[in-house]
Design a protein that fits this description.
73% helix; mainly alpha; 17 helices; 455 residues
């Protein structure tokens, strides 16, 4: 009888042979002969690294897909890094789940809510008012989010995995923040003359200041969790304080109301951890809001600035968009207009037409419009379930008699704060079908699983 290790070795040899054969056929048509030989000879080592560090490959793919690093640094744009990482992530995930079976799949109640929402979204695609648009978004982005949300939850089982995730999130986020600050200083890609963007000429997601604020807010919570933790070394604290400053400056440069709400929520919650007085917490929250508003220079914005009397154009635009979302849900209460279909349907439902379609600029109304009342109900239930799970994680760490690894403590704080900040900023940011919520969901679930298993 062949033992398990020999069986895995045979499978590994077969996979590597297939990779070599495939690479030989693919590279010889595009690269010089010596380059093909170098790539092919490196494949066995790459395969071994892929198998050993499957989670890192998965999270690097998520990092590039979410932070759009290849669009922020144009030198990386033509290397197709997200595509290569997606292949590596899928191969590594397949190896761990189907061949070596070193990763034990599990199921929790939060995953049932997540799956229910995915099913509502997919039914909505079939019934979408413009099915090609819905299918295009699903094929290009959303199926990856679905797969990777479960992959992260299942693969993130060791302390090293949480460390890798935090390093990637903070590192990528700080790099994006540096580019945003550089663009602001050099007046590159500014919207309305003052609001910073990245990769606007490439059609990047980061070309919208609100979306850029969302991307930067995600690593902000993780950087603060390390910088404000009492047990980290002074050197590490100093470095992470620098990251916090860079991320804060970059978010403020977007002049995004949702981004400012996110910063406010993050700082206030970490202050609450340090000083759990509700009165003091509310006082700081109340005082910090106008200070950030002034620092961000929102009053100088072309839209939504002080020059506009009464309800400004930006606010009115949101109200019109929310009215359109309500109308879409009333006409399609169970399925909505379909994934990514709000923009295409704006003309038919908005009470005010200025010649252009507009984004919904609200996660809640976006979910309502594109998945109907049923989708919003399930999504709200999912968020409440995740928040309760995050609270349980923090409570379990406080009450345990065991020694808790520092990275687990930091991860629990960061994920919970990021989740709350996401919920609060969701009022003004469209993030219902983008990466942050689902990555946070996967990490909350993975942390709960780790706590139940080790504490």
């Amino acid at each position: 009888m062949v033992n398990a290790q020999q069986s895995y070795g045979v499978w590994l040899a077969l996979v590597l042979c297939l990779l070599v054969i495939s690479a030989a056929n693919m590279t010889q048509a595009f690269l010089p002969g010596y380059m093909s030989l170098v790539i092919i000879s490196a494949l066995p080592l790459a395969g071994l690294v892929l198998v050993k560090y499957s989670f890192v490959m998965v999270f690097l793919f998520v990092g590039f897909s979410f932070f759009r690093l290849h669009e922020a640094f144009s030198q990386l744009y033509h290397f197709k890094i997200p595509l290569l990482l997606s292949l590596a992530a899928l191969l590594g995930l397949g190896w761990q789940l189907l061949i070596s079976r070193q990763i034990k799949c599990y199921w929790r109640a939060e995953m049932s809510w997540l799956l229910a929402f995915y099913l509502v979204v997919m039914v909505g695609i079939v019934l979408a008012s413009n099915r090609p648009i819905a299918l295009a978004y699903f094929n290009n982005i959303y199926w990856k989010i679905i797969l990777m949300s479960f992959a992260i939850a299942w693969l993130m089982q060791r302390k090293q995995d949480f460390s890798s995730a935090i390093f990637i999130i903070v590192g990528f986020g700080t790099a994006i923040a540096c580019v945003a600050i550089y663009n602001q200083v050099n007046a590159i890609g500014l919207v309305e003359g003052t609001r910073v963007t990245i990769g606007r000429q490439l059609g990047s997601v980061l070309g919208d200041p609100n979306d850029l604020a969302l991307v930067l807010m995600f690593p902000m919570a993780f950087a603060c969790a390390i910088a404000f933790h009492p047990k980290v070394t002074p050197f590490l604290r100093l470095g992470l304080c620098g990251c916090v400053i860079l991320l804060s400056v970059a978010i403020i440069a977007t002049q995004s109301r949702g981004g400012l709400l996110g910063i406010l929520a993050i700082f206030s919650l970490f202050f609450y951890f340090k000083c759990p007085s509700k009165t003091l917490f509310l006082t700081v929250f109340t005082l910090l809001a106008p200070v950030l508003f002034v620092i961000a220079g929102i009053s100088d914005r072309a839209s939504g600035g002080a020059a506009e009397a009464g309800i400004d154009a930006s606010a009115m635009g949101r109200l019109y968009a929310w009215q359109a979302a309500w109308g879409m849900a009333l006409d399609n209460p169970l399925s909505g207009v379909g994934l990514n279909n709000f923009y295409a349907n704006y003309y038919f439902y908005s009470p005010h037409w200025d010649g252009l379609n507009h984004a919904v600029h609200s996660t809640w109304f976006g979910i309502l419009a594109e998945t109907g009342f049923l989708g919003l109900l399930i999504f709200t239930g999912l968020m409440l379930k995740l928040i309760r799970c995050g609270q349980y994680n923090l409570s379990a760490l406080r009450n345990t008699q065991h020694t808790v690894p520092l990275v687990i403590d930091i991860s629990c704080r960061a994920v919970f704060v990021a989740l709350i900040a996401t919920v609060i900023s969701a009022t003004f940011l469209t993030q219902g079908f983008t990466w942050p919520i689902y990555v946070l969901a996967a990490m909350v679930i993975a942390l709960r699983q780790w706590i139940d298993k080790h504490l």
